[in-house]
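Task 17 of the worksheet. Students: predict the tertiary structure of the chain below and write it out as structure tokens. Keep your answer in the requested format; marks are given for formatting as well as content.
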Amino acid sequence: MVPNLQKSLAKSRRFMQCDVFSTTPMGGNGLAVVLDGAELGEDAMQRFARWTNLAETTFIFPPSDPAADYDIRIFTVSRELPFAGHPTLGTAACWLEAGNTPKQAGVIRQNCGVGLVEIDLTGDTPAFVAPPTSITSMAAKSLAAITAGLNLDPTRIMRHAVLDNGPIWHAIEMQGADDLLTLDAGAITPVTGLAVGLIAPHSKGDADFEVRMFSMWAGLTEDPITGSLNAALAHWMQTQGRVQRRHIIAQGTCIRRHGRVHVIPSADDPDRGPIRIGGHTNILIKGHVTL
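Model answer:
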């Protein structure tokens, strides 16, 4: 686990801002990265994350685990997360851009709230190994509240479950991508305290599935591209024998983003082996911030 550093000392720190899960700059999910978080306290990190007003902001620390290349802490505008996908890939890209080299060629080991997470650098797309996901049944009361709040057609729901890979997701699979693309976010009645992930297959185009994620922790927000949700969905589908080949997830379509998440099963054992979640990162801003 990452240590909780309470002492804060204002100084100039290296900073980058990047865009993750899209080959199109500003088509993915933005991330702020403070490359030197040493001596920053939790309150200071949360204030800065709130100020950036991005989905997440990360802070890099020297590794507390000898197997790790670095520790990170991940903050939304309102709380700290144990793990998140696009911060994992974006932080790795910024760390490399800053001139760092991993201890082992071809792999970065990140230490965060769920422990060590590996980022594979050997493929055509950097990809993290999806952390374990617990899968439980969704309570009928929760399913009914989500169905009503999101105005879903219950006859179009194929599967549903609660997925936990650090964040907790109430996941629902619909029959087709149009079920997601025609959903009016402006007409949603939030189900307070839940994060809802929707997935449905595409019948044409470059993506195999469409995903939308609605966070209802404080009001309602739609996340452009969510690596941790896609990792959890991949593990869920793997338990059903449905991740036999590499596939691509589209996300952010309805909010004018062009997110593409690569789901990469193990070539040796797609039914039980590790799953990697990959995506491209564009680094857009480099500089310093005084914190």
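Marker's comment: The chain has two domains: 12-124+280-290, 134-273. Residues 12-124+280-290 form a domain with the Diaminopimelate Epimerase; Chain A, domain 1 fold (CATH 3.10.310.10).
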